[in-house]
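Run log, item B.
One chain of 257 residues. Sequence copied directly from the ordering sheet:
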Amino acid sequence: MSDHTSKISAGEPENILLPGERIDDLQRNGYKIIQNPEKFCFGMDAVLLSGFARVKAGEDCIDLGCGNGIIPILLEAKTEGRHFTGLEIQEYSAGLAERSVMLNHLEKKVSIVKGDIRDASKIFGASSFHVVTTNPPYMTAQHGIPNQDEGKTIARHEVLCTLEDVIRESARLLVPSGRFYMVHRPFRLAEILTVMVKYRIEPKRMRLVYPYIDREPNMVLIEGLRGGRPRMTVEKPLIVYKAPGQYTDEIYDVYGY
């Protein structure tokens, strides 16, 4: 990474790209992100999670499985949080995230750590964060057809960690009354809520995301509170498109257009 660091500092963003990579504008604070379409690009789920999560002034936040760093970077732009950490097991993805942090000169606010989600509480220590965010693999190892690209398979399928691993480590990382935010698929909602309660992350807020108003939901956003009392608010549906290729006003607002 040292070769790229000097080029970023020298203000030559075009020279920090490896073969197949590009720089995309995030439409927030002038921030940009490095992506490789042949590997894995962030999706709407990550952007929606960054709009759903709340990080208050003075709070420290960690994103488990940060990929190319999209959620920590967006949360730094959208919230008043003190510091943002991204944990990523894949070396290439962690490198992308680290270079994007440097490209945006966010080294003092965002840190990228290469490591295993299953060891998160050992890496950082118990009760280390006020907020945990995560956009974990949606499919179990048995669901669907694994991608030929190993990186995409790891991002989409529970190959290296399970839903229970993510929630267990989140509970350990959070301070008492710390907040947990996750985006996932509705077909696993019963399992998600059960495991959250098992590890004493009480579900407090939920929002279903619908591609169109007359379709079934394809995403769910969930907030939990470590050690919270039972009571959950189900927010109004979030509709993505009002017509083919035309976002609703709320989606434009989340993206910052």
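Observations after the first pass:
- DSSP finds nine helices and 13 strands in the chain.
- The first strand starts at residue 22 and ends at 25.
Flagged for discussion on Thursday.
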